[in-house]
Amino acid sequence: MTSDQYAVAVPFYDLWHEDGHVPEIREKLPALVKGSVLEIGAGTGLITEVIADATDGEIFALEPSLGMRSVLLSRLAGRRELLERVTVLPYGALDVELDEPVDMIVMIAVLYSIEDRASLWATLARQLVPGGRLVFNFREREAPTPGDDAEMASYRVGRHTYELWGRTLEVEGERISARFRYVIRHGGEVISEDVVDSVTHRPSLATLVAELTEAGFTREDAPEGLLVWGLAK
To answer: What is the third-level CATH fold of 7-139+203-231?
Structure first.
């Protein structure tokens, strides 16, 4: 599968995430990583590198977007020692079936994009050894309010400015519809602009606890901003 729905975001991806959750994940995740790892939604490989530096085990980096995978593979090509133990999988989170289970699953900045969480937890449980761990980032926040277009970030790259704009369109329960604009300017003039509508799903912590407990996971201690769940042995 080679979904490229995130293609227009690729030039902005590392700029945005290095200015967001990535530094915190870089600090907190390594102490939790052990053994073989399945990474769900590897993107351009920012977290893949963090995982690879924290374990000598085999890594499966799952990423459905061709654009994102292209950057990920280029990143791996710059670190030749990783080519022997990082396998890049062109699948979505609900489609993965590994040849054998792994010790750990890492899922960073992915949870909100998946609606069918019951299938997600069941799929991930099949990929883990008994006692294996699932780690993902999560912060409970108030639902956003629909409103006007607002600038979320702006980055200067040479003579160009990369701008990310967003607005919430509709909120219905945990379902949030939003519109994002990816704009590149040269001397103030727009030379590239793409618009993407997206839907995310933001469950409460109580909902996640109930779902994961039902799926056979037990919550473990974790650094702030991360959740760690162990699969029953």
So the answer is: Rossmann fold (3.40.50)
